[in-house]
Design brief:
mainly alpha; 21 helices; transferase; about 0% strand; two-stranded antiparallel ribbon; single chain
């Protein structure tokens, strides 16, 4: 019986791979009238190349900012030294994707249903082209990703072979690296493609990788938490909804949450670890698979992608110590005790933002609509009322308001996604949309290898004097 199942899975993989090119060609034919990603990029890239050349020629020696010794030894925080077109973090309005705020995108991006959450496929179109897609263009991206989504048999076999207990992020990185075998960018570079054409195989690899990530994540989830009982993708579902489906969470609310989650976590400027690592490795002309894998190893760090886990664990600790429905006075005392004990309140504050994170706000609105009576949401709402006031009273916090991580874990818990170690994989799947869109543009604009100047302590002292 097991042999029959294995044969069936192998046949399915072979059939999907054999049909992928046909499906992809069909998708492209359907895209031609709407304006495909590649067609729009081909039209835009020459003008952008000229714009960057002119910028360098006219303003190349102008100073963007000063670098202090504190910044040099403090993680280069805030140094304006990267070109990153896909997003910009505004201290007052939060992240802007190609100039659009989160509320604007919720209103303007196509949704799977009337009044629903935006489709990440629409955001991918926007980040790559700079244009808001029509409903037809977003649907065409869905179809193109679906046509590229079949996993090679060796990737599925690799994931199955990993030792029990392997962290989900390690599994994700291993799977991404296994896909590098088929890198079109690596093959084109070896064949001697002209540098002006680097962006084309980079786009092919990026779309292939983005398309395959939901099934990779679904397999990791089911192998790790459901005894390897895999769920086939649903050809009728969009990219994010299919991810939720393959994890085993098919309620309409879960599908909508996944669309929202994958949209708002897609990008956050280029200086964060996962984005910068992807950019840095890509600047050496490593292909998108190698570059994205580097970004994911950075995302796996406790100071980056694990923040929503830390928030959730803290909230759970609150409920254990003072109950599931504490009063605001009890919460206020608990927060003060936390701070006086030399600890932080996770999920509050931000290095750049000076207001409530719009990503927090849109998740709060989602919860008010779909799960208003959920006890953990009520607790998060009470913390929203209590914590900023306490942090302000300390006089030490520039931004006392909640960020995106203060809310996302609670929403995932409500829909049964309770395995916290997996949350960073969901983050990583989303982050691919932003960092790979920028990688395509980095190759299109001919950005060089990144090579900042480093100094020894003695050299810094000498310059400071």
């Amino acid at each position: 019986m097991q042999a029959s199942r294995n044969l069936a899975k192998t046949l399915r993989s072979v059939t999907l791979r054999q049909g992928a090119e046909d499906l992809l060609e069909q998708a492209r034919r359907g895209l031609s009238s709407a304006g495909s990603l590649k067609e729009v990029l081909k039209e835009k890239i020459p003008a952008e190349q000229e714009r960057v050349k002119a910028l360098k020629k006219e303003h190349g020696r102008k100073v963007l900012g000063e670098v202090t010794v504190e910044q040099a030894i403090g993680g280069m925080r805030g140094i304006p030294a990267m070109l990153w077109e896909t997003s910009l973090l505004d201290p007052e309005e939060g992240i802007r994707f190609r100039g659009h705020t989160i509320p604007e995108l919720q209103a303007k991006l196509p949704a799977a249903k009337e009044g629903g959450e935006p489709l990440p496929e629409g955001l991918l179109f926007l980040l790559l082209t700079g244009e808001l897609p029509t409903k037809e263009q977003a649907q065409a991206v869905t179809e193109e990703l679906r046509a590229r989504s079949a996993l090679p048999a060796h990737t599925v076999a690799l994931l199955k072979s990993l030792p029990k207990g392997t962290h989900p992020m390690t599994q994700l990185t291993q799977a991404v690296l296994s896909l590098q075998l088929d890198s079109k960018f690596a093959a084109a570079y070896t064949a001697g493609v002209h540098k002006s054409k680097y962006w084309e195989p980079a786009l092919e690899d990026s779309l292939d990788l983005i398309a395959k990530l939901p099934e990779i994540a679904g397999i990791i989830y089911r192998n790790t938490y459901a005894n390897g009982d895999l769920i086939e993708p649903d050809a009728q579902l969009d990219w994010a909804a299919n991810l939720s489906h393959m994890m085993g969470h098919r309620s309409e609310g879960a599908l909508e949450l996944m669309r929202l989650y994958q949209t708002i976590h897609a990008d956050h400027e280029g200086g964060n670890v996962s984005a910068h690592a992807t950019h840095l490795v890509g600047s050496a002309l490593s292909d998108p698979y190698l570059s994205f894998a580097a970004g994911m190893t950075g995302l796996a760090g406790p100071l980056h992608g694990l923040a929503n886990q830390e928030v959730l664990r803290w909230i759970q600790m609150v409920t254990r110590e003072i109950g599931e429905e504490p009063s605001q006075d009890q919460l206020r005392e608990y927060v003060w005790a936390t701070l006086k004990g030399g600890k932080v309140v996770p999920g509050f504050g931000h290095a750049v933002l000076r207001k409530t994170d719009p990503r927090y706000t849109c998740q709060r609105e989602f919860a008010q609509k779909h799960l208003p009576d959920y006890p953990l949401f009520k607790l998060v709402s009470d913390l929203y009322e209590v914590v900023p006031d306490v942090l302000t009273q300390t006089g030490k916090v520039k931004n006392p308001w909640p960020n995106v991580d203060a809310h996302s874990g609670v929403l995932l818990q409500y829909y049964g996604i309770t395995h916290e170690n997996f949350y960073t994989v969901l983050f990583g799947v989303s982050r691919a949309i932003g960092v790979l869109s920028q990688l395509v543009w980095s190759r299109a604009l001919g950005l060089p290898i990144e090579r900042p100047k480093s100094l020894t302590v003695e050299a810094i002292i000498a310059r400071a004097k």
